[in-house]
């Protein structure tokens, strides 16, 4: 039991973790499942393991620092073992306006590095960057078109007219 507690404490001092991540670490260290469950239950009781708080912190942090959209954040939470209901509650803190503002900021920053590139390729790169961060295609193309229009770049075709590739 003491070994399991020490493992969990060490993990939590490095970074916040979900209960599933901690359980995985305990299993990797050959801690019996009943001991792991008892230790994790106790850590939850005292508030040191809290998946809801962890999910909210992760969503807020990744949305602000990496500009991830809700879809990418949901995948991240799933990978970290946060259950769907808890993830849904945490993701509800990101509004459509927050998501659009983050997309605009990402495009604005990336525009500088794509000057001189063919306008269609430039738009594809910008939209592709947003897609990799989980933004829906419609929002990505709209934000890219508006950013390029503000920059007086040549007018781009509608989203459905973008060539593949």
UniProtKB/TrEMBL annotation:
Q: Where is this gene product found?
A: Cytoplasm
RecX third three-helical domain span:
98-144
Q: Which Gene3D superfamilies match?
A: Winged helix-like DNA-binding domain superfamily/Winged helix DNA-binding domain
Q: Which UniProt keywords apply?
A: Cytoplasm
Pfam families, from UniProt? Answer: RecX_HTH1 (PF21982), RecX_HTH2 (PF02631), RecX_HTH3 (PF21981)
What region holds the RecX first three-helical domain?
4-42
Q: Does Cytoplasm count among this protein's keywords?
A: yes
- Residue spans making up a coiled coil are none
Organism domain of life: Bacteria
**Domain (RecX second three-helical) ranges:** 50-91
What job does this protein perform? Modulates RecA activity.
Q: Which family does it belong to?
A: Belongs to the RecX family.
Q: Spell out the protein name for this chain.
A: Regulatory protein RecX
User: To which species is this protein native?
Assistant: Kineococcus glutinatus
The coding gene here is recX
């Amino acid at each position: 039991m003491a070994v399991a507690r020490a493992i969990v404490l060490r993990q939590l001092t490095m970074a916040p973790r979900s209960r599933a991540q901690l359980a995985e670490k305990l299993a990797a260290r050959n801690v019996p499942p009943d001991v792991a469950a008892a230790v994790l239950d106790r850590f939850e009781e005292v508030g040191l393991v809290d998946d809801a708080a962890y999910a909210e912190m992760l969503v807020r942090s990744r949305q602000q620092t990496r500009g991830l959209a809700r879809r990418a954040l949901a995948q991240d939470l799933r990978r970290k073992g946060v259950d769907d209901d808890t993830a849904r509650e945490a993701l509800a803190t990101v509004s459509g306006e927050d998501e659009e503002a983050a997309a605009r900021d990402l495009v604005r920053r990336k525009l500088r590095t794509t000057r001189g590139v063919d306008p269609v390729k430039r738009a594809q790169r910008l939209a592709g960057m947003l897609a990799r961060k989980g933004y829906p295609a419609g929002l990505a193309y709209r934000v890219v078109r508006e950013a390029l229009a503000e920059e007086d770049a040549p007018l781009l075709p509608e989203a459905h007219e973008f060539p593949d590739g």
